[in-house]
Amino acid sequence: MMRMGGVDEVDRLGRDEVRKVLRRSVRMALPFKRTVGAAVGFTFLSTLGLVLGPVIIGYGIDDGISVGDRGVLRNAVIFYVIVAVVGYLAARQQFVFINRAGENFLRVLRTRVFDHVQRQSLAFYDRFKSGVLVARMTADIESMAELVQWGLLQFVSAGLLIVLTLVLLFALSWQLALVGLLVLPIIVVASRKFQRDSNAAYLDVREQIGENLSTMQEGISGVRVIQAYAREPEQIKRFAQSNRGLFDSHVHSVKVSTWYFGLVEACGVWGTALVVGIGGWLVSRGDVQIGTVIACVLLLAQLFEPVQQLSQLYNTLQSSAASLNKLFGILDTEPDIEDGARELPPSGAIAVDQVGFSYPGTSVPVLSEVQLTIADGERLALVGPTGAGKSTLAKLIARLYDPTRGSISFGGIDLRAATLSSLRARIVVVPQEGFLFSGTVADNIRIARADATDEELRAALAAIGALERFDAFDAGIHTEVRERGSRLSAGERQLVSLARAALVDPAVLVLDEATSNLDPGTEMIVEGALERLMAERTTIVVAHRLTTVQRADRIGVVAGGRLVELGSHTELVAQGGRYAALADAWARSQPAV
User: Fold this and answer.
1) What percentage of the chain has pLDDT greater than the value 70?
2) pLDDT-derived band of residue 224, with 50, 70 and 90 as boundaries?
3) In terms of C-beta distances under 8 Å and separation of at least 24 residues, what long-range contacts does 6-12 make, across chains too?
4) DSSP label at residue 440
5) 395: which residues sit within 8 A by CB, 6+ positions away?
6) Residue 60: pLDDT above 90?
7) Residue 376's pLDDT is what?
8) How many CA atoms lie within 13 A of 513 on its CB side?
9) Residue 571: which H helix or E strand, with range?
10) How far is residue 342's CA from residue 416's CA, in Å, rounded to a whole number?
11) By CB atoms within 10 Å of each CB, which of 225, 292, 440, 554 scores lowest?
């Protein structure tokens, strides 16, 4: 199975890195060692049955047919049937157990990665985009599925088959064993070359798949622009070129495999011919029996297939190791927001003390030397141009990030020293657009508190004046919202988001322009719910609309990463500074009555 992404990373992963990744994977798989042990045991039984077949045939020919002993021949046939049946049953069980162990490993890995990702701060998502994380959880794990579902089974089976076959060959006739292995150096050299060539071809196919899918995605996503300017022929030509590149890379990979497997098959034929020829000469001299020659020919035929399988597994192993390396890189990422030990008080003032902040991977500060105290129960509005840092300051107050310099405290306790459970109970953020999960309205409100009863959910909706609106639905609060809340309007989705906050009943409410994406009619409904929610609690509002700002107790103007003005609406307008200019621009933008 080919997959996108990480082409150069697979190519760069050396043997030492592969060994480290595999050792770590083995440690992670230790809880399933009994299942793996059972799989290996059944693999040994099925492989033993496979190699004993030719030996039994040789025994039946030499000691039964050649001397006319029907009893020996009958016993050989019975023993052969028993071995075949045991081998068949063992092969079925080895497949069941190895897949059970492999799927358990993938299940645990998926859970560990998802759990680790969920516990990360927003800074983590600045470094790892959602598409990359989804690729790690899907494409990279699917790449490993190929290894754990059949690759490990083939690896163990092929290794055992080679060892047992060689042991039996030398036990039957060391002369014929050496003759048959004369072609082995050719296979070893060819296998090394195949590993290099097929790895390069495999990487090229993956790169071409990525390019082809990228071209397809652009063509579909930008279809409106393409049709608006009648550029369909050019886009079709682009896709045809990338599709041809993918075709050529696939054909090249097939050619690489064809010459190698053809050569191995030819070596098997040459080895068999040599054993038959030399074996016939040894039989004529009386050194070996005809049954031994036949047994050696059958065993030799089984020797070359596992060599092919091990060579094929090389690329699977490399790809899986690279995928695991990426996943372990995520698992090794320590959360930026660490849990503290102190419980925050039920209420208190917020103190922002000389706070500076730069986003991870950047040296340019977003905020510098911000000094601010927000009294308990005060309503503060943050305004300023786009990119000024007001949303970042709100996120720092909610401890979605930690400041690079300075500190933020609540009730006299530094937020970095607080337990995350008490922090999230005291300070709640309502984003611009309330994200809804699949499920019912009730399920989505319970995101805030999983143990809440239906009565508590209804009370939260009533607290923001939205209960009647949701009771009007046929199923009430148990109405399915569908994917991303598509069944609800934008206003209803935001009301659900506000009901979550009401259910928590926090001391501090951080509103990141909670009405910016709503039409005027819906905005009035949500504004009414917001007013109820903000009553008697500290509120920090990030806003662009001055109708919201005017109702605040104080207004902070953020510009260039600094808090440049602070005061009431009347005070700041009288100062004639930045806020006065914003208020004037807003007034002039309103339609004449």
Assistant:
1) 89
2) confident
3) 6/140, 6/322, 6/323, 6/326, 7/203, 7/206, 7/207, 7/210, 9/322, 9/325, 9/326, 10/203, 10/206, 10/318, 10/319, 10/322, 11/199, 11/203
4) B
5) 122, 401, 429
6) no
7) 92
8) 15
9) helix 569-575
10) 9
11) 225
Local confidence band at 370 (pLDDT 50, 70, 90 cut-offs) = very high
Identify any residues that bridge with 241 across adjacent strands, giving them in sequence order: none
The CA-atom distances, in angstroms, between 148 and each of 104, 156, 199 are 10, 12, 19
**CA 393 – CA 377 distance, rounded (Å):** 19
pTM value is: 0.66
- 10 Å CB burial of residue 26 (0-12, 13-18, 19+) is exposed
Instruction: Give the whole-angstrom CA distance, residue 567 versus residue 557.
Output: 9
3-class secondary structure, 160: helix
Strands (E) across 403-507 are located at 405-410, 413-414, 427-430
**CA–CA distances in Å: residue 394 to residues 265, 327, 397, 447, 572:** 69, 32, 5, 22, 21
- Residue 491 CA to residue 481 CA, distance in Å, equals 13
Instruction: Tell which wins on pLDDT, 183 or 411.
Output: 411
Q: Name the strands in the sheet holding 413-414, side by side, starting at the edge strand that comes first in the sequence.
A: 367-374, 350-357, 405-410, 413-414
* Residue 366 vs residues 272, 405, 487, 561: alpha-carbon distances, Å: 75, 12, 38, 5
Using CA atoms of 379, 351, 356, 425 in order, give the dihedral in degrees to the nearest 10.
-70
Query: Hey, CA dihedral for 207, 211, 216, 218, is it positive or negative?
Result: positive
Backbone angles phi, psi at 189, to 5 degrees: -65, -45
* Cβ 198 vs Cβ 253: under 8 Å: yes
Say if CB 564 and CB 558 are below 8 A apart.
Answer: yes
The C-alpha atoms of residue 517 and residue 544 are separated, in whole angstroms, by: 11
Distance CA 110, CA 136 (A): 9
* CA 201 – CA 147 distance, rounded (Å): 19
Specify which residues 428 forms β-bridges with: 509
Q: What is the 8-class DSSP label of residue 591?
A: P
**Residue 404 phi, psi dihedral angles, 5° rounding:** -70, -35
The answer to whether 508 and 540 have CB atoms below 8 angstroms apart is yes
Q: Would you say 301 and 272 are in contact if contact means Cβ atoms under 8 Å apart?
A: yes
* Residue whose tokens read 């005291």: 426
**Which residue in this structure is represented by tokens 């509120």?**
539
Residue 591 predicted with pLDDT over 60:
no
Tokens describing residue 449: 């508190």
Residue ranges in 431-486 assigned as alpha helix (H) = 441-445, 454-463, 467-471
